[in-house]
Amino acid sequence: MAKAKKTNGDLNFEAKLWQAADKMRNNMDAAEYKHVVLGLIFLKYISDAFIELYTKLSNTKGADPEDPDEYRADNIFYVPKKARWDYLQKNAKQPIIGKLIDDAMDEIEKDNKILKGVLPKNYARSSLDKQRLGELIDLIGTIGLGDKENRSKDILGRVYEYFLGQFADAEGKKGGQFYTPRSIVQLLVEMLEPYKGRVFDPCCGSGGMFVQSEKFVEAHGGRIGDISIYGQESNQTTWRLCKMNLAIRGIDANIGWNNEGSFLNDAHKDLKADFLIANPPFNDSDWKGELLREDIRWKYGTPPAGNANFAWVQHFIYHLSPAGTAGFVLANGSMSSNTSGEGEIRKKIIEADIVDCMVALPSQLFYNTMIPACLWFISRDKKSSKFRDRRGEILFIDARNMGVMIDRRHRELTDEQVSRIAETYHTWRSKNGKYKDIAGFCKSAKIDEVTKHGFVLTPGRYVGTEVQEEDDEAFAEKMKRLTAELKDQFVQSAKIEKEIKKNLKQVGFSLE
């Protein structure tokens, strides 16, 4: 993920936008104002993309910049005159700005049927402070979102990622509704290679997995229509974001929504996918597992009601075609936990010989959770004629030492590192590949060896240790980084402790 542009002193653009949203909290709660802010950000995004092409068409002989078909040809939304950002910004200080925005949303939906019922339209309500709304429009207007350069960097995705986490915190909920960082999505897609067939994500968030899959197909000479996209999302706001995200890119997809979610109300019950790619909520304790004790999906054992990790794993496996493959993110605990029968479920999945590859990820990749994560790759047909017969083997990759810090708290995988991990997997499963174990990085292990390790799938158990010299300068840099990370963790712990004391005091308890 590219480094954020600095736009306000030491603040990056996500924090700057969040400041603007936070200014409105004096007269509405987070659950309300998230719709206000994210709707305006989307409006700015499509207006930026429209104006960029409008300018080009205005300077092209024979082209009509007011012809909607000119925009549809480039997967750009046609934006009517009174819905364009410059018009709204000129009227931002008018008391009728709320109605102008609602009208703009209506006009855009009329001209772009794919957005019908998706855009928020409640800006004219009396409870919304119109002065604050005007200030918000002015501030969002300073940030480029939808021009070609920012589209290529997925700036909209970064804004939504940051905001979803901040809104979850502001609403007092666990920050689990987060956007998967681009480098992780890129790695999953590069390893799975979804060239053709049905692609499914049953917890699809804002749709980043689908966007990257389409980019992959196009980058390798395929056609967008070669893959069919299916998804499900339980959070309606996030579902709307996903619909917007895919619509912007001209991606046709079957995205189901219900507030019960994939476990209680599977929107694609009969779907058997060729590729499944997902990043489910980590360690979800509120998945209503007690209502699903006898479900047909629990082929390898009933998952504990207090943790959905192995409910997700088995849901994914259930939805794979006989030759399907899956790649998904899970918390590290899924690789070794023996709590509440999880170890027995993992054992049965391993003995079924469908685990293809495990990747340990570096820390600090996610914006809104510090829980360490890993990637699982499942293959229903390890003797597939497309690749070599891999029955009885699992590839382990330890990528914990990879990634570069993009600021003091966040890391991302570089394109070169993504390629190295993906190529290692491709070489290992290829018929003509020249795969070799590399100490400290990768190891092809027999299932007998995994059995001896108690069916633990942590790559560090298998790959060994890389032997290397470390000069004084490298040591000093590492100590500097570790000191900064520890300081950040200490500050965060102090804030949490202070908040706990404050909450306890409000209900009559004191830790003093």
What Rg, in angstroms, do the CA atoms define? Answer: 24 Å
CATH homologous superfamily caption of the largest domain: Vaccinia Virus protein VP39
Average residue pLDDT: 85
CATH first level of the largest domain: Alpha Beta
Largest sheet, spatial ordering of strands: 5-4-3-6-7-9-8-10-13
CATH topology term of the largest domain: Rossmann fold
| Percentage of residues assigned to helices | 40-55%
Terminus-to-terminus distance: 44 Å
Q: Structural class of the helix and strand makeup?
A: alpha/beta
Largest sheet: 9 strands, mixed
Examine the secondary-structure arrangement and name the CATH architecture of the largest domain: 3-Layer(aba) Sandwich
Count of discrete structural domains: 3
How many H/I helices? 18
How many E-type strands? 13
Shape descriptor: globular
Strand content: 5-15%
Enumerate the spans where pLDDT stays under 50 for 5 or more consecutive residues: 1-11, 172-178, 469-473
Explain the overall architecture.
The structure is a single chain. By secondary structure, the chain is of the alpha/beta class. The protein folds into 3 domains: 6-170, N6 adenine-specific DNA methyltransferase, N-terminal domain (Ferritin), CATH 1.20.1260.30; 182-463, Rossmann fold (3-Layer(aba) Sandwich); 475-512, no CATH class. It is 42% helix and 13% strand. The protein has 18 helices and 13 strands. The protein has helices at residues 13-22, 30-58, 68-72, 85-90, 97-111, 130-140, 148-152, 155-170, 182-192, 208-219, 236-248, 261-264, 309-318, 342-351, 415-429, 447-452, 460-463, 472-506, and strands at residues 6-8, 11-12, 197-201, 227-233, 253-257, 273-278, 320-331, 355-360, 373-379, 393-398, 404-405, 411-412, 442-446. It has a 9-stranded mixed beta sheet with strand order 5-4-3-6-7-9-8-10-13. A two-stranded antiparallel sheet has the order 1-2. It has a two-stranded antiparallel ribbon with strand order 11-12. α9 (182-192) packs across α10. The longest helix has 35 residues, at 472-506. The two termini are 44 Å apart. Residues 1-11, 172-178 and 469-473 have low confidence and may be disordered.
